[in-house]
C-alpha cells in the first residue's frame, strides 16, 4: 500500500511534468502567433477579391451637361499631390461597397393614405394624376401652392409664385432659423418622411434675399426674405453622401413670412430621398485617384458647383463619398469628390472601375469575365 510519502512524490512528479508540458504548449502557441505576425508584417495575406455580387452596374446618372468651356485644374492640396487612400487595415484602398436602394411597390392603399397625409398639411381634395404615380394637390392660402407627390415613395415637389408676392418681400413675419427648422421638421413628420437616416447635425440653414426674382445671400435675418433648409443623410460608415448640387441636398425647403398660424410658411420644396439598404451591399474594385483626376481633366464626371472666377480651378481636397441623385437609382455608388477652396468648386467622378460599368467598352467588358 502506497505511503503518504509515495503519493506526495508522485504528485510532485506529475505537477512537474505537467508544468513542463503546459509550458511547451504555451511556447508553441506564442511561436506560432509570432510567426503569423512576422509573416503578415512582411508577407501579408492578400484580401479576397471584391464580391461584385450585383454584377455589372449602370453608370451613375449625373445631370446632363450643357456646353462647357475648357478648364485647367491645379492640384493645390497641402502636399501638392493627389492623396493616397487607405482601407481599415492601412493598406491602399482598392475597393468600395455598393449598396442596394429599395423601392416601394404600388398598393391599393397608397392613394388614399397619401390623401390623408397631404390633408394633414393643408392640401385637400382627391388629387389629380399627373404622370405615373405622381398626383397633384393644391392649397388656397393667401399664396396658392401646388403639391406634387409620388404616392408610392412619397417624394414631392411644392411650388408657389412666391418671388413676387408682396407679403413674402415684406418679410414681417419671417421665422428665425430655429422656427424654420421646427416648421420643416414638423412638415416632414406629418408626411412620414422624416427618415431615421437623416442626420440633424448636418442640417444647413441659409438666409436668402430676393431681387427681381433672383436669390442672393443675406448676411443677417433682417435682410432676408426666405430661409433655405437642407437636410442630409447620415454618413455610411465614414463616407458622406453627396447630391447633384454640391453642398446642397435633394431634400430642401424654402420658408417665408406668413400672415397667420394657419398659413403654410413653406413656399417651395424639392424632396427626394433614397432608401439605402445598408445590409445589402457588395464590394467593387475602384479606379485609382490618378485615373479619376485624369477623367476630370478630360471633361468627364459632373461639375456640381463652380463659383471660381476664371478657367483655372484649384483642387484643395479629394475624398471618397457616395452619390445620391434626385431620380430613381437602384444602387448607391461611390464617387471621388474634387473640392475647391471654400466650397467654391465641387466635381464628382464615378469611382467604380469601368470594367464593372455596363456602358464601358466591349474590350473592358470581356476582360472583366
Quick take:
This protein has 369 residues and is α+β, with helices and mostly antiparallel strands.
| Strand line-up in the sheet with most strands | 3-4-5-6-12-11-9-7-8
Give start-end ranges of low-pLDDT stretches.
361-369
The overall average pLDDT, rounded, is 89
User: How many DSSP helices?
Assistant: 6
| Portion in helices | 10-25%
Would you count the extended β strands for me? 18
- Strand proportion: 25-35%
Written as H for each helix and E for each strand, in order along the chain, the element string is HEEHEEEEHHEEEEEEEHEEEEEH
Number of domain modules: 3
Radius of gyration: 29 Å
The end-to-end distance, rounded to whole angstroms, is 79 Å
User: Could you say which overall geometry the principal axes of the C-alpha atoms support?
Assistant: elongated
Largest sheet: 9 strands, antiparallel
Structural class: alpha+beta
Model description:
With 369 residues, the chain is α+β, with helices and mostly antiparallel strands. It folds into 3 domains: 45 residues; 121 residues, no CATH class; 162 residues, no CATH class. 22% of the residues lie in helices and 30% in strands. The strands form 3 sheets. Strands 3-4-5-6-12-11-9-7-8 form a 9-stranded antiparallel beta sheet, with helices on one face. Strands 2, 10, 13, 14, 16, 17 and 18 form a 7-stranded mixed beta sheet that branches. The chain is elongated, with a radius of gyration of 29 Å.
